[in-house]
Automatic annotation (TrEMBL):
Stated name of the protein: Benzoate 1,2-dioxygenase electron transfer component BenC
Obligatory cofactor(s): [2Fe-2S] cluster
SUPFAM superfamilies (alphabetical): 2Fe-2S ferredoxin-like, Ferredoxin reductase-like, C-terminal NADP-linked domain, Riboflavin synthase domain-like
Annotated gene: benC
Residue intervals of the 2Fe-2S ferredoxin-type domain: 4-97
The FAD-binding FR-type domain, residue ranges: 104-202
Pfam family, one: Fer2
InterPro entries given in the database record: 2Fe-2S_ferredoxin-like_sf, 2Fe-2S_ferredoxin-type, 2Fe2S_fd_BS, BenC-like_FAD_NAD-bd, Beta-grasp_dom_sf, Cbr1-like_FAD-bd_dom, FAD-bd_FR_type, Flavoprot_Pyr_Nucl_cyt_Rdtase
Organism: Sulfitobacter profundi
Protein backbone atom coordinates (compact mmCIF):
# COMPACT_ATOMS: atom_id res chain seq x y z
CA UNK A 1 0.00 0.00 0.00
CA UNK A 2 1.28 3.47 -0.88
CA UNK A 3 1.79 5.93 1.94
CA UNK A 4 3.09 9.50 2.02
CA UNK A 5 4.89 11.57 4.64
CA UNK A 6 3.03 14.75 5.58
CA UNK A 7 4.99 17.27 7.65
CA UNK A 8 2.77 19.38 9.91
CA UNK A 9 4.52 22.65 10.78
CA UNK A 10 2.82 24.26 13.77
CA UNK A 11 3.09 27.97 14.50
CA UNK A 12 5.16 27.36 17.66
CA UNK A 13 7.96 25.86 15.54
CA UNK A 14 7.23 22.21 16.26
CA UNK A 15 7.05 19.82 13.31
CA UNK A 16 5.41 16.40 13.35
CA UNK A 17 5.63 14.08 10.36
CA UNK A 18 2.68 11.73 9.91
CA UNK A 19 2.09 8.90 7.47
CA UNK A 20 -0.95 9.22 5.27
CA UNK A 21 -2.12 6.03 3.55
CA UNK A 22 -3.36 5.83 -0.01
CA UNK A 23 -6.75 7.58 -0.33
CA UNK A 24 -6.62 8.70 3.32
CA UNK A 25 -7.51 12.27 4.23
CA UNK A 26 -4.96 14.23 6.22
CA UNK A 27 -7.26 14.89 9.18
CA UNK A 28 -8.05 11.18 9.49
CA UNK A 29 -4.36 10.28 9.30
CA UNK A 30 -3.51 12.86 11.96
CA UNK A 31 -6.22 11.63 14.31
CA UNK A 32 -5.03 8.06 13.78
CA UNK A 33 -1.60 9.20 14.96
CA UNK A 34 -3.05 11.07 17.95
CA UNK A 35 -2.73 14.60 16.55
CA UNK A 36 -5.96 16.58 16.81
CA UNK A 37 -5.89 19.01 13.93
CA UNK A 38 -8.51 21.77 14.31
CA UNK A 39 -11.85 20.57 12.96
CA UNK A 40 -15.57 21.14 13.48
CA UNK A 41 -17.29 19.31 10.65
CA UNK A 42 -15.25 16.82 8.50
CA UNK A 43 -17.42 17.85 5.52
CA UNK A 44 -15.58 20.82 3.99
CA UNK A 45 -18.20 23.22 5.35
CA UNK A 46 -16.75 25.07 8.33
CA UNK A 47 -13.18 25.93 7.24
CA UNK A 48 -11.79 25.27 10.72
CA UNK A 49 -9.14 22.88 9.37
CA UNK A 50 -7.75 25.29 6.75
CA UNK A 51 -3.97 25.05 6.35
CA UNK A 52 -1.44 26.12 3.73
CA UNK A 53 0.31 23.52 1.57
CA UNK A 54 3.91 24.60 1.06
CA UNK A 55 4.90 21.48 -0.85
CA UNK A 56 3.39 18.43 -2.51
CA UNK A 57 0.57 17.32 -4.78
CA UNK A 58 -2.86 16.34 -3.52
CA UNK A 59 -6.54 16.00 -4.34
CA UNK A 60 -9.12 18.25 -2.72
CA UNK A 61 -12.59 16.83 -2.43
CA UNK A 62 -15.74 18.86 -1.70
CA UNK A 63 -15.57 22.26 -0.01
CA UNK A 64 -18.02 25.13 0.21
CA UNK A 65 -17.23 28.70 -0.75
CA UNK A 66 -17.93 29.76 2.83
CA UNK A 67 -15.11 27.53 4.05
CA UNK A 68 -12.52 28.26 1.36
CA UNK A 69 -12.65 30.23 -1.86
CA UNK A 70 -11.40 28.94 -5.20
CA UNK A 71 -8.79 31.70 -5.12
CA UNK A 72 -7.47 30.40 -1.80
CA UNK A 73 -7.36 26.86 -3.17
CA UNK A 74 -5.39 28.04 -6.19
CA UNK A 75 -2.98 29.86 -3.88
CA UNK A 76 -2.24 26.64 -1.97
CA UNK A 77 -4.70 26.64 0.92
CA UNK A 78 -6.32 23.31 1.75
CA UNK A 79 -8.94 21.87 4.07
CA UNK A 80 -7.24 18.90 5.72
CA UNK A 81 -10.59 17.13 6.11
CA UNK A 82 -10.86 17.07 2.29
CA UNK A 83 -7.18 16.73 1.35
CA UNK A 84 -5.87 13.41 0.02
CA UNK A 85 -2.07 13.51 -0.57
CA UNK A 86 -0.65 12.19 -3.82
CA UNK A 87 2.98 12.80 -2.78
CA UNK A 88 4.92 13.78 0.33
CA UNK A 89 3.57 17.14 1.55
CA UNK A 90 4.42 20.00 3.89
CA UNK A 91 1.55 21.82 5.60
CA UNK A 92 1.68 25.03 7.61
CA UNK A 93 -0.81 24.65 10.47
CA UNK A 94 -2.04 28.01 11.88
CA UNK A 95 -2.12 26.93 15.52
CA UNK A 96 0.24 25.59 18.17
CA UNK A 97 1.21 21.97 18.63
CA UNK A 98 -0.18 22.09 22.17
CA UNK A 99 -3.59 23.12 20.85
CA UNK A 100 -3.52 19.97 18.70
CA UNK A 101 -2.64 17.87 21.74
CA UNK A 102 0.78 16.94 20.47
CA UNK A 103 4.37 17.85 21.23
CA UNK A 104 7.84 17.37 19.78
CA UNK A 105 8.67 13.70 19.38
CA UNK A 106 11.38 12.17 21.59
CA UNK A 107 13.65 9.51 20.09
CA UNK A 108 16.48 7.71 21.83
CA UNK A 109 19.90 7.70 20.22
CA UNK A 110 23.23 5.99 20.73
CA UNK A 111 26.58 7.63 20.06
CA UNK A 112 28.34 5.90 17.18
CA UNK A 113 31.26 8.27 16.68
CA UNK A 114 32.64 11.67 17.59
CA UNK A 115 35.27 13.26 15.37
CA UNK A 116 37.25 16.43 15.99
CA UNK A 117 37.17 18.10 12.58
CA UNK A 118 39.12 21.21 13.57
CA UNK A 119 39.85 23.31 16.62
CA UNK A 120 36.42 24.88 16.14
CA UNK A 121 34.16 21.95 15.26
CA UNK A 122 33.10 18.40 16.01
CA UNK A 123 31.11 15.83 14.06
CA UNK A 124 28.63 13.72 16.05
CA UNK A 125 27.08 10.56 14.60
CA UNK A 126 24.15 8.83 16.30
CA UNK A 127 22.21 5.61 15.81
CA UNK A 128 18.50 6.30 16.37
CA UNK A 129 16.01 3.89 17.87
CA UNK A 130 13.82 4.77 14.87
CA UNK A 131 14.00 7.30 12.03
CA UNK A 132 12.99 10.79 13.11
CA UNK A 133 11.03 12.68 10.48
CA UNK A 134 12.23 16.23 9.81
CA UNK A 135 12.63 18.76 7.03
CA UNK A 136 16.19 19.42 5.83
CA UNK A 137 17.40 22.48 7.72
CA UNK A 138 15.51 21.84 10.96
CA UNK A 139 17.05 21.22 14.38
CA UNK A 140 16.49 19.03 17.44
CA UNK A 141 17.31 19.29 21.12
CA UNK A 142 20.02 16.78 22.03
CA UNK A 143 20.61 15.80 25.67
CA UNK A 144 24.18 16.01 26.97
CA UNK A 145 25.01 12.76 28.83
CA UNK A 146 25.68 13.20 32.52
CA UNK A 147 24.49 16.80 32.74
CA UNK A 148 20.69 16.86 32.67
CA UNK A 149 20.94 19.57 30.02
CA UNK A 150 20.31 19.72 26.28
CA UNK A 151 21.57 21.75 23.35
CA UNK A 152 19.98 22.49 19.96
CA UNK A 153 21.63 21.44 16.70
CA UNK A 154 20.64 21.27 13.05
CA UNK A 155 20.83 17.91 11.32
CA UNK A 156 23.67 17.60 8.82
CA UNK A 157 22.22 14.33 7.50
CA UNK A 158 19.30 13.59 5.20
CA UNK A 159 15.81 12.86 6.60
CA UNK A 160 14.44 9.34 6.81
CA UNK A 161 17.44 7.43 8.17
CA UNK A 162 18.00 5.71 11.52
CA UNK A 163 21.41 7.40 11.64
CA UNK A 164 21.81 11.12 12.22
CA UNK A 165 24.82 13.40 12.03
CA UNK A 166 25.49 16.86 13.42
CA UNK A 167 28.19 19.48 12.82
CA UNK A 168 28.82 21.12 16.18
CA UNK A 169 30.78 24.24 17.01
CA UNK A 170 33.49 23.77 19.65
CA UNK A 171 32.84 26.40 22.31
CA UNK A 172 35.52 26.20 25.04
CA UNK A 173 33.80 25.45 28.33
CA UNK A 174 30.50 24.71 26.62
CA UNK A 175 28.43 21.87 28.03
CA UNK A 176 28.23 19.88 24.79
CA UNK A 177 31.73 20.85 23.68
CA UNK A 178 33.22 19.63 26.95
CA UNK A 179 31.36 16.34 26.63
CA UNK A 180 32.42 15.76 23.02
CA UNK A 181 36.03 16.77 23.60
CA UNK A 182 36.66 15.05 26.91
CA UNK A 183 34.46 12.05 27.70
CA UNK A 184 32.20 11.04 24.81
CA UNK A 185 32.40 7.38 23.80
CA UNK A 186 30.49 5.00 21.53
CA UNK A 187 27.42 3.59 23.23
CA UNK A 188 26.56 6.71 25.21
CA UNK A 189 22.80 7.31 25.25
CA UNK A 190 21.15 10.58 24.28
CA UNK A 191 17.60 11.74 23.63
CA UNK A 192 16.60 13.80 20.61
CA UNK A 193 13.48 15.95 20.90
CA UNK A 194 11.99 17.60 17.83
CA UNK A 195 12.20 18.43 15.06
CA UNK A 196 11.69 22.17 15.32
CA UNK A 197 12.34 25.37 13.46
CA UNK A 198 11.12 27.42 10.53
CA UNK A 199 14.48 27.19 8.74
CA UNK A 200 13.99 24.40 6.22
CA UNK A 201 14.20 23.94 2.47
CA UNK A 202 11.08 24.98 0.57
CA UNK A 203 10.28 23.78 -2.97
CA UNK A 204 12.98 25.02 -5.32
CA UNK A 205 11.27 27.08 -8.01
CA UNK A 206 13.92 29.72 -8.76
CA UNK A 207 17.63 30.48 -8.29
CA UNK A 208 18.98 29.63 -4.86
CA UNK A 209 21.55 31.62 -2.84
CA UNK A 210 22.75 29.78 0.26
CA UNK A 211 25.02 31.44 2.85
CA UNK A 212 26.74 29.36 5.54
CA UNK A 213 28.89 30.76 8.34
CA UNK A 214 31.12 28.22 10.10
CA UNK A 215 29.13 25.30 11.47
CA UNK A 216 26.08 27.00 9.95
CA UNK A 217 26.99 24.66 7.09
CA UNK A 218 25.13 21.84 8.91
CA UNK A 219 21.58 22.50 7.64
CA UNK A 220 22.89 22.98 4.10
CA UNK A 221 24.56 19.58 4.25
CA UNK A 222 21.14 18.12 5.06
CA UNK A 223 19.59 20.01 2.15
CA UNK A 224 22.33 18.89 -0.24
CA UNK A 225 21.96 15.28 0.89
CA UNK A 226 18.26 15.35 0.05
CA UNK A 227 18.79 17.08 -3.28
CA UNK A 228 21.46 14.54 -4.20
CA UNK A 229 18.63 11.97 -4.14
CA UNK A 230 15.78 14.09 -5.51
CA UNK A 231 17.63 16.41 -7.88
CA UNK A 232 17.19 20.16 -8.42
CA UNK A 233 16.29 21.97 -11.64
CA UNK A 234 17.37 25.44 -10.52
CA UNK A 235 20.96 26.63 -9.98
CA UNK A 236 22.24 26.82 -6.41
CA UNK A 237 25.12 29.03 -5.24
CA UNK A 238 26.53 28.20 -1.81
CA UNK A 239 28.84 30.62 -0.01
CA UNK A 240 30.76 28.92 2.80
CA UNK A 241 32.48 31.49 5.04
CA UNK A 242 34.88 30.68 7.88
CA UNK A 243 37.74 32.30 9.75
CA UNK A 244 40.65 30.03 8.79
CA UNK A 245 41.29 27.39 6.13
CA UNK A 246 41.28 24.68 8.81
CA UNK A 247 37.67 25.64 9.55
CA UNK A 248 36.53 24.62 6.05
CA UNK A 249 35.38 21.27 7.41
CA UNK A 250 33.25 18.85 5.38
CA UNK A 251 34.32 20.65 2.20
CA UNK A 252 35.07 17.39 0.39
CA UNK A 253 31.57 16.20 1.23
CA UNK A 254 30.04 19.47 0.02
CA UNK A 255 31.92 19.28 -3.27
CA UNK A 256 30.98 15.63 -3.81
CA UNK A 257 27.29 16.39 -3.22
CA UNK A 258 27.49 19.46 -5.46
CA UNK A 259 28.98 17.35 -8.25
CA UNK A 260 26.27 14.73 -7.86
CA UNK A 261 23.47 17.33 -8.01
CA UNK A 262 25.14 18.97 -10.97
CA UNK A 263 24.10 22.63 -10.78
CA UNK A 264 25.63 23.72 -7.46
CA UNK A 265 28.42 26.31 -7.30
CA UNK A 266 30.46 26.35 -4.07
CA UNK A 267 32.28 29.55 -3.07
CA UNK A 268 34.54 29.67 0.00
CA UNK A 269 35.52 32.83 1.89
CA UNK A 270 38.23 33.22 4.55
CA UNK A 271 38.26 36.02 7.13
CA UNK A 272 41.78 35.55 8.52
CA UNK A 273 44.13 38.22 7.15
CA UNK A 274 47.29 36.11 7.61
CA UNK A 275 46.16 33.22 5.37
CA UNK A 276 46.20 33.03 1.60
CA UNK A 277 42.89 32.43 -0.17
CA UNK A 278 41.17 33.47 -3.38
CA UNK A 279 38.43 35.30 -1.48
CA UNK A 280 39.26 37.11 1.75
CA UNK A 281 37.11 39.05 4.19
CA UNK A 282 33.41 38.49 4.78
CA UNK A 283 30.59 37.18 2.64
CA UNK A 284 29.29 40.71 2.13
CA UNK A 285 32.61 41.66 0.51
CA UNK A 286 31.81 39.29 -2.33
CA UNK A 287 28.02 39.24 -2.63
CA UNK A 288 26.82 41.21 -5.63
CA UNK A 289 23.47 42.15 -7.10
CA UNK A 290 24.20 39.52 -9.75
CA UNK A 291 24.19 36.84 -7.03
CA UNK A 292 20.64 37.93 -6.20
CA UNK A 293 19.53 37.51 -9.84
CA UNK A 294 17.72 40.82 -9.76
CA UNK A 295 15.68 39.58 -6.80
CA UNK A 296 14.47 36.42 -8.57
CA UNK A 297 15.96 34.07 -5.99
CA UNK A 298 15.44 32.46 -2.61
CA UNK A 299 18.06 33.18 0.05
CA UNK A 300 18.89 30.85 2.94
CA UNK A 301 21.38 31.98 5.58
CA UNK A 302 22.65 30.18 8.66
CA UNK A 303 25.37 31.78 10.74
CA UNK A 304 26.21 33.95 13.75
CA UNK A 305 24.04 37.02 14.43
CA UNK A 306 26.59 39.57 13.09
CA UNK A 307 26.66 37.72 9.75
CA UNK A 308 22.88 37.67 9.51
CA UNK A 309 22.62 41.38 10.34
CA UNK A 310 25.41 42.28 7.90
CA UNK A 311 23.79 40.37 5.04
CA UNK A 312 20.42 41.97 5.63
CA UNK A 313 22.01 45.42 5.59
CA UNK A 314 24.00 44.51 2.49
CA UNK A 315 20.82 43.64 0.60
CA UNK A 316 19.52 47.11 1.44
CA UNK A 317 22.75 48.68 0.16
CA UNK A 318 22.50 46.69 -3.08
CA UNK A 319 18.88 47.73 -3.41
CA UNK A 320 17.78 44.21 -4.27
CA UNK A 321 15.27 42.15 -2.27
CA UNK A 322 15.00 38.38 -2.87
CA UNK A 323 11.63 36.72 -3.34
CA UNK A 324 12.16 35.01 0.02
CA UNK A 325 14.79 35.25 2.74
CA UNK A 326 15.04 32.48 5.34
CA UNK A 327 17.67 32.75 8.06
CA UNK A 328 18.77 31.19 11.30
CA UNK A 329 21.02 32.88 13.84
CA UNK A 330 23.39 30.94 16.05
CA UNK A 331 23.08 31.54 19.74
CA UNK A 332 26.59 31.72 21.23
CA UNK A 333 25.47 29.99 24.43
CA UNK A 334 24.75 26.71 22.61
CA UNK A 335 21.01 26.99 23.14
CA UNK A 336 18.23 27.51 20.67
CA UNK A 337 18.69 29.38 17.40
CA UNK A 338 16.51 32.18 16.17
CA UNK A 339 14.91 31.36 12.83
CA UNK A 340 12.87 33.36 10.37
Amino acid sequence: MTSYNVALNFEDGVTRVIQCEDDEKVTDAAFRQKINLPMDCRDGVCGTCKCFAEKGTYELEFYMDESMSDEEAEAGFVLTCQMIPESDCVLRVPTSSAACKTAPEAVEGEVLAVETLSETSFSLKLKLAKPLGFLPGQYVNVTVPGTGQHRSYSFSSAPGSDEATFLIRNLPGGVMSSYLGERAKPGDQVTLTGPMGAFYLRPIERNQLWLAGGTGLAPFLSMLEQLAELGADQPIKLYYAVTRAADLVELDRVNALAEKIGNVTVVTVLAAEDEAHDRKGFVTDHLSAEDLCGGDCDVYLCGPPPMVDAVRSHFDILGVAPVSFHYEKFNPTETSAEAA
